[in-house]
Automatic annotation (TrEMBL):
Belongs to the glutamate synthase family. It comes from Candidatus Scalindua rubra. Residues 286-403 form the Glutamate synthase domain. Pfam families: Glu_synthase. The lineage of its organism: Bacteria, Pseudomonadati, Planctomycetota, Candidatus Brocadiia, Candidatus Brocadiales. GO terms for molecular function: glutamate synthase activity. It comes from the Bacteria. This is Glutamate synthase domain-containing protein. One of its GO terms (biological process) is glutamate biosynthetic process.
């Protein structure tokens, strides 16, 4: 464990060590720390730039995920296949495997593919690419969730005398990107809220004015256990955000800070949000949660979600139990190891329950309630997932409770690549990875003709997302057909097996050398 993550250096923080691989394993410092070194490592960079070194760089222009190698991950499980099955004639070809799924207590949110792009908030990356992601989700028939702080970050947002939002151009743009391209009622767009969004009335505005399909309470995410943060590069905006009630570091109203900013010593400001918390007194916490859910339903919410992060087991139990009592439609559980674009680097690697472990707990806790006849919300599992086998294994690990998976960072990657190549095509300077397929959008993007015919002309970013999702859809159909599973709901825990005893111990999934011994013996002895 840990071979991929060496402290004190990373491409994520644009740092390295002077002695290369010759470092102390625990600290990551060079074996010889030499007087005269200009400061290549994180310690050295911190000596110059202080708190800027906490975050992956260049801040706002990239996404980052944890580099740590966990003891058990998705690669420690394989998918089982079988030659023996009873299936209908129409399923003899893998192309007929059905990937549709439904979410909500009434199954009213229907998806063509079991994919959700979760929580794209006020980061620069999300703002830059959201329109393509919204269009992409709509034409793919999948779900997308607008993340936190969008209203508060928009300089043009308007508020009433009670500091509740009355207009937000950025939110209007985001909802429009999805709603204008949605087809046959597939997919959904939802919006989540942190304490700042609650204060500004963002959920009510989104439901009643913009037509949000669902609203999501937010307890946290898998990449960090603090509120969201972004970088601000103008003094005026930093002051505006402080005035709106955000935490801005360093203080933009401080004279010394202003002087340092003018000199260039401080390149920008960090905007932070308050840390959300619930009461540690269980009855009060339950009551407060149920009241929040009822408030949202009374305000017009048809579907209510909760998103929770990679906290300790008792917090996961709280999330599942509270959702059960309040009849929340969907619970998104985000494991450690994923990430988007604004999480502290060491925190992203060193805190939280990794996805495989939290998936195992999710199954155990949901099953406990289900066996007592209690309501179990639909589960979306997220946290560093990027491929069709991850989708299959997620469904299997916590079957039958997982109904979709969350993929944000990989979705953003596909959109960014699409947009990068789209711009390069316009300029006639096509990068080598794209140039080998041609010199135009129609030649380079596999699904260009199909998408333009079915949905009208869309941007290269949306084409990139559509192509990526369709690749996963085809791959998932192949894997499912190989397992003789032709509906997502038919995937079970016996459809994967553990390659190590530790993986079996963590998840309760069968270890391969112990699996089906009796069944095999009965065949041999027949």
């Amino acid at each position: 464990m840990g071979s991929l993550f060496i402290p004190n250096r990373s491409a994520a923080t644009k740092t390295r060590t002077r002695t290369g691989a010759q470092v102390l394993p625990q600290s990551g410092m060079c074996v010889i720390c030499l007087d005269g070194c200009p400061g290549f490592c994180e310690i050295g960079t911190s000596a110059m730039r202080g708190p800027e070194t906490i975050y992956p760089q260049p801040f706002g222009e990239m996404t980052a995920g944890a580099q740590k190698d966990y003891p058990v991950d998705y690669s420690h499980f394989n998918i089982s296949g079988t030659i023996a099955s009873h299936h209908q004639k129409e399923y003899e070809m893998f192309t007929n495997v059905n990937l549709e799924t439904r979410l909500g207590r009434d199954d009213g949110l229907k998806l063509k593919l079991p994919l959700i792009c979760t929580g794209l908030g006020s980061t620069q990356i999300a703002q830059k690419h959201f329109e393509d992601i919204g269009v992409g989700a709509a034409i793919c028939g999948t779900g997308i969730v607008i993340g936190e702080n969008v209203v508060g970050m928009d300089e043009k947002s308007k508020f009433d005398s009670n500091h509740k939002v009355t207009e937000c151009k950025e939110l209007i743009r985001r909802f429009k990107s999805f709603k204008d391209n949605q087809k046959d009622g597939y997919g959904f767009i939802a919006i989540q809220a942190n304490p700042e969004d609650w204060r500004l009335g963002v959920l009510e505005y989104s439901m009643n004015k913009l037509g949000s399909d669902a609203v999501e309470l937010k307890w946290g995410q898998g990449a960090k256990n603090i509120g969201g943060e972004v970088k601000i590069y103008t003094l005026e905006k930093a002051k505006m955000l402080k005035k709106r009630g955000y935490i801005v570091i360093p203080d933009p109203d401080d004279n010394i800070t202003q002087e340092a900013f003018k000199k260039g010593a401080i390149e920008g400001f960090e905007r932070h949000t308050r840390i959300g918390a619930i009461s540690d007194f269980l009855p009060k916490a339950m009551d407060d949660f149920c009241q929040s859910v009822e408030h949202l339903r009374g305000a017009g919410a048809k579907y209510v979600f909760l998103k929770t992060g990679a906290y300790r087991p008792s917090d996961l139990a709280r999330a599942i139990k509270f959702c059960s009592i309040a009849k929340v439609d969907v619970l998104t559980i985000d494991g450690a190891g994923g990430g988007t674009g604004m999480s502290p680097w060491r925190m992203m690697n060193e805190w939280g329950v990794p996805t495989v472990y939290i998936a195992a707990m999710t199954y155990e806790y949901c099953d406990r309630l289900a066996k007592r006849g209690e309501y179990v919300p639909d589960i979306i599992l997220a946290g560093g997932l990027t491929s069709e086998d991850h989708i299959y294994k997620s469904f299997a690990l916590a079957a039958p409770y997982v109904k979709a998976v969350g993929m944000s960072r990989s979705t953003i990657c596909a959109v960014m690549v699409g947009n990068t190549n789209g711009e390069a095509i316009k300029k006639g300077k096509i990068p080598k990875p794209a140039a080998e397929y041609g010199d135009s959008v129609d030649k380079i993007f596999y699904y260009s003709t199909k998408v333009n015919k079915e949905f009208g002309k869309v941007g290269p970013g949306a084409l990139g997302m559509y192509s990526y999702y369709q690749r996963m859809a085809m791959g998932l159909r192949q894997i499912m057909a190989g397992s003789r599973r032709f509906e997502l709901s038919s995937i079970g825990r016996n459809d994967i097996f553990a390659l190590t005893r530790e993986a079996a111990d963590v998840t309760g999934i069968n270890y391969i050398m112990d699996w089906e011994k009796e069944a095999s013996a009965s065949i041999l002895d027949a």
